[in-house]
Amino acid sequence: MCSVAMLSVLRSDSYAELSQYRDQHFRGNRYDQERLLKKSCTLYVGNLSFYTTEEQIYELFGKSGDIKKIIMGLDKVKKTACGFCFVEYYSRGDAENAMRYINGTRLDDRIIRTDWDAGFKEGRQYGRGRSGGQVRDEYRQDYDAGRGGYGKVVQPQ
Amino acid sequence: EERLESLICRVGEKSTSSLESNLEGLAGVLEADLPNYKSKILRILCTVARLLPEKLTVYTTLVGLLNARNYNFGGEFVEAMIRQLKECLKANMYNEAVYLVRFLSDLVNCHVIAAPSMVAMFENFVSVTQEEDVPQVRCDWYVFAFLSSLPWVGKELYEKKDAEMDRILSQTESYLKRRQKIHVPMLQVWSADKPHPQEEYLDCLWAQIQKLKKDRWQERHILRPYLAFDSILCEALQHNLPPFTPPPHTEDSVYPMPRVIFRMFDYTDDPEGPVMPGSHSVERFVIEENLHCIIKSHWKERKTCAAQLLSYPGNNKIPLNYHIVEVVFAELFQLPVPPHIEVMYTTLLIELCKLQPGSLPQVLAQATEMLYMRLDTMNTTCIDRFMNWFSHHLSNFQFRWSWEDWSDCLTHDLDKPKPKFVREVLEKCMRLSYHQRIIDIVPATFSVLSPANPSCIYKYGDESNKSLPGYTVALCLTIAIKNKTSNDEIFGILKDVPNPNQDDDDDEGFTFNPLKIEVFVQTLLHLAAKSFSHSFSALAKFHEVFKTLAESDEGKLHVLRVVYEVWKNHPQMIAVLVDKMIRTQIVDCAAVANWIFSPELAHDFTRFYIWEILHSTIRKMNKHVVKIQKELEETKARLARQHKRRDSDDDDDDDDRSSDREDGPLEEQIERLQEKVESAQSEQKNLFLVIFQRFIMILTEHLVRCETGGIDVITPWYKNCIERLQQIFLQHHQIIQQYMLTLENLLFTAELDHHILAVFQQFCALQA
Q: Would you identify the family this protein belongs to, as annotated (chain B) (predicted)?
């Protein structure tokens, strides 16, 4: 009775659910990937400024729990920050709270986005765009001072 | 059936039809479904009664309509509710039990339950106050359950049974007069009663009920859909509640802790808008209860939560924005701990601002201003939370704030609450951005409060320092580390460092040598200063050297001292390094506790980051114990399952030796884990004892000094320190409860200064 009977209206936890995104480079089948995502303690964090530091990320994400590790995303060529990172917590509950309360808020004046990650593997800290940064910075048309200015496709050769 | 659950849960939400017609329609549907789904419907209705208290009157009306159509169903529902109530009480779910009691009492208004039987239940509730040798918090709960139902049902009960009600109320009054309130100072957000008294929750509720009684139980705020159905409902037959005996007190009973009601607004704060109900009006109570319930229901869904709060009915008759802001801050500042994680409130307030951009930000700014004005009497823990919230909030709004409005704080001593608050806010803002940003956002006059540039201080850095002992070794070490030398070579280089503590040649080289530690730690941290990741790599790579140098207790303390010397301008770095060193067992929790109370840190003792580190350390210790306990439980469960499997298999397998052999490894594991648990628990207890001991020492020193010097005890430092001691008790009260005897007999004895003893006594009063 008491501890188990929950109403679906109160079970709703949309911020902590899996998104539609699936890493296409994941080694394994969809089922394995989802299984890992559902018990992961690691979050992907996107739309960071290139200048956002590890310290700032620690401070913000530390508000939902103790951080185990942060891995900054790097440009594959330049080996400098290229606007994303991974945040790993010791407990899933802390990661869920980050999804509920830190996702969609600001860091360095930018709305950042968090999503579940199946777990860091060597190589995943690099951008996958042709120029070395993230794919999104290859093709975007707008000017973003915090992410190297115009997208690579717009920049002069 | 999900359909039924969805229909029932959704009634009362925004709809094209009126609430009354929705309820009528739903009652018809459910009545038709009763033959096939009765137990399902009963279960769902009992659950919404318990978990959706903000919609209480919607569901009591629904039950009333069902009872009018089907008397037996009404009776079964009441029985199911009583069963659920008993189970909740036995399971220590007292907060939910209150909602059940309230639901039952509102069923009187819906003609489901006969008023006299409800009065009889309340008689039994309040007679708990006559029980002997029970904790006060037990009696408190029964009184609270009774009083907090009266806004809904007081009128009806008084009309039917005024003499009995007067008797119960008078019994309540005499209990409230004689109960002790030692716990109150520990739970107040402000120690001052101006402008709003911070009342004990039962005192406040009693005043509200008194006023309600004086107003002849007229209550106009609660939405009562059943009034529209009066003609139907009064035809219904009522049920009598069975006589209810409160379950007896047991050793396992854990009652809710007392509370202090947080008040920051009154009607003068919004002169243009609707009048805010007074602090002793029952409307105030009902509004606050409902808003708290909404947050409790929707805390995981910030947008829904904000929307539900803002669509609370009656929002043109009450200054809803003010109520919401007050309720949110009440939770954020609640002592001992907020009901939900702190960051939730920050994000919730941002969502509320998004939904009401024309009005809510102004109320929030007004609230911030008020909180700032009253910092002098605010509890230190609450100041922390205010500071954390404000800095995080600002970081979402480009740090825009009218700092000049607060320039009065510049005229005070820097250790006074207002300038201290601004300093801590600016430091936290810097952590979320960067140093130059903070310099840019504050007026030049505020530079005295600006945080230091978080740079590393390397004592062997300059050529001018070459006379320092260890300088040459430091240079040598720097080159070696840059050349990626092995740990053995590092030890070799360090061997050359003389030990200022020893005269003879101790060739083992591994006893406590502060200079060796200094040279190594300074050099390494300086080389790894670039980022947290660099420093963590350094700790990992040279872990063996660290472990060896910090083997003794003095060694551990000295490592911490050197970390502080190098990074005193970057408290965040100190915190993450200490965290890593504990996790990699370079230092232990007790060493960190001793370091925090050491004379070297006295200058920073009142700074927030110190307490961040201490509480983080205690948390790690607690989590460690829990983790090993869980491992032990899991291994025991595995053994039990193994036994069960064996028992259910071949019964004629009498070979005891083979079963023992199977059990062997698991049993060994259990024994080892048992030892591990005991050792962890002992380390945990030791940590708390060390902390309490150091507090007592440092506070006694201060008190003696003040006494002999004839100066006032209450300095800003003292207020901070004594409230930090309180914070230890409050934040970890469940664990500390285990140590009560030790604390009473060993540390918090009668000889202690009464200032310090009072904190312990207040803590004991929380569960007394």
A: Belongs to the NCBP1 family.
